[in-house]
Amino acid sequence: GAVVSQHPSWVICKSGTSVKIECRSLDFQATTMFWYRQFPKQSLMLMATSNEGSKATYEQGVEKDKFLINHASLTLSTLTVTSAHPEDSSFYICSARAWGVAGASTDTQYFGPGTRLTVL
Amino acid sequence: GQQLNQSPQSMFIQEGEDVSMNCTSSSIFNTWLWYKQDPGEGPVLLIALYKAGELTSNGRLTAQFGITRKDSFLNISASIPSDVGIYFCAGQRRSGYALNFGKGTSLLVTP
Predict the structure, then answer these.
(1) How far does B55 lie from chain A, in Å, by closest CA?
(2) Mind spelling out the 3-state secondary structure of chain B?
(3) pLDDT at residue A100, as a whole number
């Protein structure tokens, strides 16, 4: 249990285009998902918290109009990078909050495999 | 969010050796987690700690939640080549909150 998928696993796009990344919890429901970005040889930095049925909460310095987040169901959150530029090239990773998965009584976050975005 | 202090930054060891890495914070966390990340993939949860003083094992891995709630360590015993990767500690202030990550420890194991 507790599998999180991301699609696509990698994408190359031209500058100025928009890219949508999907994050799905495959075998559990997640009311909360998180989006992180990771630059080469660096740690994960939180971009935003996505709550099902409500607006996402963005971290300081993250443009909400540029990184659109939609958490339309209990198993799907999407991140859309609008008008992408080369500096947006990064590894984007989502995580989903899992409560009671596999009989556990604890609250844990499981990560997707990541999406490599390259903007030319 | 706050980034945790994780050390060492990198380790280069021989197969069979034990490894120890730790993470400290200036503030309290209610949950400590340890993840391993392979190149081009997302982090995989290794051990989760929910109680101060808790010592938990997962195979050759052992992790402890510091009594002060401001630190945690991870030990790997009898390392093998597949232990190669980047290990991240993460702290969570409250249930449901996002994670604060350390900068990672890059582990290389030679046969």
Answers:
(1) 16
(2) CCCEEEECCEEEEECCCCEEEEEECCCCCCEEEEEEECCCCCCEEEEEECCCCCEEEECCEEEEECCCCCEEEEEECCCCHHHCEEEEEEEECCCCCCCEEECCEEEEEEC
(3) 60
